[in-house]
Amino acid sequence: MKKFISYFSIIVLLYLFTWPIGIDPVNWKSEKPPEFEGQYEKNDILKDIKIFWENDGHEGPEDVVLHKNKVYVGYSDGTIMTTSGKFYNTNGRPLGMAFDNEDNLIIADAKRGLLSINPQGTGKVLSTKSDTDNIPLRFTDDLDIANDGKIYFSDASFKYGYGNELKDLMEHKPNGRLLVYNPDTGKTSTLLNDLYFANGVAISPDNTYLLITETFIYRVKKYWLKGEKKGTSEIIIDNLPGLPDNISSDGKDIFWLALFTTRNQFIEQTSDKPFLRKVALRLPSILQPKPKHYSFVLGISGKGEVIHNFQNDSKDSYAPITSVNQYGNDLYFGSLSHKGWGKMKVPE
Questions:
Q1: How far apart are CA 268 and CA 273, in angstroms?
Q2: For residue 177, which of 140, 230, 122 has the smallest C-alpha distance?
């Protein structure tokens, strides 16, 4: 019996230390997460979120868009639902969505690329790769549309597709990109490389710049579209207390930033220990790092100043929140895994 236990232990250790898992993690240094005080002080403001369409047989309403008094929601099974029923099915995984000037619903589909659905419900693929570097879109994530019709969007990771987010996190290399699709030419160009899980995209009201979130390095970047700094980028806020997801503009002076969850202690402690992150990926999924159930939204300025801080850490909170969009005096919330979408009055 002792020999069996010894042999079994050796096999387990060999598996944990040597089994190939297809990632090449790197050493990085994570800053100490900020305390939940001051501008990040804990509160329960998001307890007032009301949930809709929770029992409609779908889940994962990643993004919620209001257009001509109709709500549009994209689910994990590819279905796009509206107030009046089913609108379309992408046969992929719709994430970020927005309407262009011709009432076409533009979708960042994680599996299929950049899509366009006309008002009659007929769809077409706009882009599946960058024409400047010929690299396919692997994880089309979020988008926003400029006044001139150009569609700015993110490819979260050109290396790992949808469903492999943990691999990208554990490897921790800048595999993300910011791209633009020009409807006049039908071409897609890469604007920024080397982003750490490029996620939310939001254009400023005056169309002079956009903000893009980097989920796995806890920061938001500004990319200039016009002016003397055109084509350059800068960090406007970093070392966030959580993982930034989608971001949107209220059309005035606030950018609503959804934080998927708070920072994970294991990831923080192994930022400079890539070998341990490899070992963790060999563990059964139940033992791998899991996101905390936490409802978290920030309202920031275009300079990265924190203006609003909304939270709720209760077990029944609406979480994870992956998108926040403001229409009138209401905030609409999406979630990667919840069954329903949320809505709440903008707190005074």
A1: 10
A2: 140
- CA distances to 44, 189, 233, 342, 345 from 132, rounded to whole Å, are 46, 5, 19, 39, 43
Cα gap 259→267, rounded to integer Å: 16
Strand pairing partners for 190? 179
Biggest CA–CA distance in the chain, Å, is 75
Distance CA 13, CA 8 (A): 9
Burial of 114 (0-12, 13-18, 19+ CB in 10 A): buried
Name the pLDDT band for 1 (thresholds 50, 70, 90).
low
pLDDT value, residue 2? 56
Q: Could you tell me which of 294, 222, 290 has the C-alpha nearest to residue 259?
A: 294
**The two structure tokens encoding residue 249:** 């503009």
**314-334 average pLDDT score:** 97
Geometric angle at alpha carbon 9, from 277 and 274, rounded to 5°: 10
What are the percentages of helix, strand and coil residues in the chain, rounded to 5?
15, 40, 45
Q: In what order do the strands lie in the sheet with 79-82?
A: 64-67, 70-74, 79-82, 85-89
pLDDT tens-place string over residues 13-46: 444 445 456 688 899 999 999 999 999 999 999 9
Alpha-carbon distance 344 to 326, whole Å? 10
> 207-245 pLDDT, tens per residue?
999 999 999 999 999 999 999 999 999 999 999 999 999
Q: What pLDDT, on a 0 to 100 scale, did the predictor assign at position 15? A: 42
- The two tokens of residue 171 are 């490897």
- State whether the Cα torsion 340-250-120-95 is positive or negative: negative
Measured CA to CA, the distance from residue 333 to residue 348 in angstroms comes to 18
The whole-number pLDDT of residue 14 equals: 42
Omega before residue 244 within 30° of 0, cis: no
